[in-house]
Amino acid sequence: MAKGREQAAPDAVLTRIGQVVMLHHAGDREEARDRFLGLWAEIGEHGDPLHRCTLAHYLADTQDDPGDELAWDLRALTAAEEITQDPLADPHEHEGALAARALYPSLHLNLADDYDRLGHREAARLHLRRARGAAESLAPDRYGEGVRAAIGRLERRLDGAGRGSDGPDRPGGWPRPPRQRP
To answer: pLDDT per residue over 146-156, tens digit each?
Structure first.
């Protein structure tokens, strides 16, 4: 190929994850969960951390049980930290480091929501603060604004939790923050 026209080959695993995300967004949650679990079996607990982070992040959305959702969100955060906190890796050289850093606001937001729905308000507030801090580095684009808006909604929900407002166990319930990708 001519210089300047070279492109990295698309990542087949991330492409497959994206296809299942579209299936999930189209409303087939159970099929999406089954396909995500099949991908997880292929990738394995020790597979590429960017693949594990991305897959676990979206697999959490397909869970029916809040505890299971929390477990997948924690796997996603652990994989992201593997990428971004490796002292031997230069973040500018590791192709997944920037993508993982861009996911931190959403990862922490989702964990805050998980902990809140499970009744662990202090853990929820801790992750919400981390989400807010990480969101400062997001661009003022659709993704960044969407994450910041979801953080604001969850902050208001947590602030209202101590004042007798509807909660996850009450008739009005609470909407969940959106899962977004950069």
So the answer is: 999 999 999 99
